[in-house]
Amino acid sequence: MSGGLDYRQGGPFKAPDDILVDDNFAQQHKLKIGDVLELANHNWTVRGIVGPGKLSKAFVEKKILQDLTSNTDKITMVYVKVDDPKIIPAAITGLKKALPDYQIYSMEEFLSLITPDNVPGLNAFIGTVVGLAVVFGFLVVFLAMYTAVLERMREIGILKALGASPAYVIGMLMRETFLLAVIGSIIGIGLSFVAKWAITSFVPASLPVIAVPDWWWRAGLISLAGAMLGAIYPGTKAARQDTIEALAYE
Amino acid sequence: MSSESIISVRDLRKTYHVGDVDVHALRGVNLEVRRGEFLSIVGHSGSGKSTLFNIIGGLTPPSAGHVVIDGKDLRAMSESDRTELRKQSIGFVFQKYNLLPTLSAGDNIALAQSMAGKSQKMDGDFEEVLKILGIAHRLHHKPRALSGGEQQRVAIARAVVNHPAILLADEPTGNLDTENSERVLSLLRDLNERLGQTIIMITHNPEAAAFGHRTARMKDGTILNGA
After folding, report:
1. Cβ–Cβ of A247/B94 closer than 8 Å?
2. Distance from CA of A191 to the nearest CA of B (A)
3. CB contacts < 8 Å between A and B, how many?
């Protein structure tokens, strides 16, 4: 591994049941040197805490793990480091000749295998989740606007009695909805940073959280479209509401 | 008071369809109101006085008959025409005040001006009206901070700010105690006398009705006298 392990506390393995963990894992599980950690139905003693970014969050002796998982003398993957990136193609060709029964990849090829396009069904899953979020978001906004209009039916009756036209009432409600959607989107983006802070603070060893500004305008447009569409029906209903019935609304 | 008629109602009928049943709320009402007159309409619940109020106010169309308001026939009017009539020619005072709770008293009045497309600057005459109503110092307060009597006086100010030809008041003292009722009724009479404001007031209280020049009594969808 590049640069080897960077020990923050403790040191290398001293006993077969020793385990090394990275900073994030130790923080999340409140571990310190000498603590016992149960992992894979085995009790391990924390011997060292290392810096993150070394391909794994926890490290144990290879032979112990092979025995525990009934894979004696077997390994799943070997990373090969070369001195110069220019020799990667030659190194791969040489390895393929020497090990014809094994899959040999460059890091670029390996990473491309774990993108959404190469995981069967992942894109469809993500699309479904986003679609459901949009539908439920739309329904929530729709119901919120519908309730808001019902609660203000009397006020709308007063406006109509004063001479407000249906277009005036719809325009007023749509302007309010637009403003609420824009403010809500800005607050939502702000809350995503709060969520990011909470995840990295309380469960730092989970998946990495990245803020993607490219999605801000898309999310804003989705919420704006949901809010405006959700407001049209109750807005139109309110504008057409009989003034006398609206004034009698409690 | 002028001899010119500002409201002319001829054989006015209104029928509501409730399920399979027809409810005849007005059964041939005839009424003349002169410009500058203060008319009280009294009657028990179900006599048709609120229906008459709603039709004259352009809030609902008649089923049959003629209603001419300031020279305009309501039967020939579309919904948008009636909206325009409410905006320009009629001011409403309701029993429950119907002020917008999120706006201050002054903003409630300004909203009526804005709706009618008029300047929100109050002219000298209207400032005089605010003094008469005794609310000039309360314009920055929200309705919840005002007493019932003050809220009704703000509602009256809102109703007359655009100088409408007609002021319609539906049970304006229905939610007020005796002292505030007398004050509001006196103010309506004062506005009628000072500004020549035509006022139609719906009430079931004979004492309140006595503040008007004339009283029309309604029963079972018709006017018994005073037409």
Report:
1. yes
2. 29
3. 42
Interface with chain A: mutation pick from B60, B98, B99, highest number of A CBs within 10 Å: B98
Q: Give every CB contact of residue B123 below 8 A, 6+ residues apart in sequence.
A: none
Question: Does the distance separating the beta carbons of B88 and A158 come in below 8 Å?
Answer: no
> A152: distance to nearest CA of chain B, Å?
10
Query: Is B60–A242 a contact, with Cβ atoms under 8 angstroms apart?
Result: yes
Is any Cβ of chain A less than 8 angstroms from the Cβ of B116? yes
CA distances to A25, A27, A195 from A202, in Å? 11, 8, 10
Cα separation, A229 vs A174, whole angstroms? 10
Distances (CA, A) of B64 to A245, B24, B26: 21, 11, 10
- Are residues A164 and B57, on separate chains, in Cβ contact within 8 Å? no
DSSP three-state, residue B227: coil
Q: Are B130 and B136 in contact (CB under 8 A)?
A: yes
Chain B residue with the nearest C-alpha to that of A156: B100
Q: Per the CB < 8 Å rule, is B88 touching A163?
A: yes
The ipTM is: 0.86
Distances in whole angstroms, Cα of residue A44 to Cα of each of A11, A13, A19, A201, B130: 15, 11, 6, 25, 84
pLDDT in tens, A39-72: 888 999 999 999 988 888 899 999 999 998 899 8
pLDDT tens for A144-198 read 878 888 888 889 999 999 989 999 999 988 998 899 889 999 999 999 999 999 9
Question: In chain A, where are the structural domains located?
Answer: 7-68, 85-114, 119-247
Which residue's entry shows tokens 């600057």?
B121
Pairing of strands B21-34, B5-18: antiparallel
How many C-beta atoms surround the C-beta of residue B129 within 10 A?
Answer: 24
- Alpha helices by DSSP H, listed for A99-242, are 107-113, 122-151, 153-161, 166-202, 214-240
- Amino acid in position A235: G
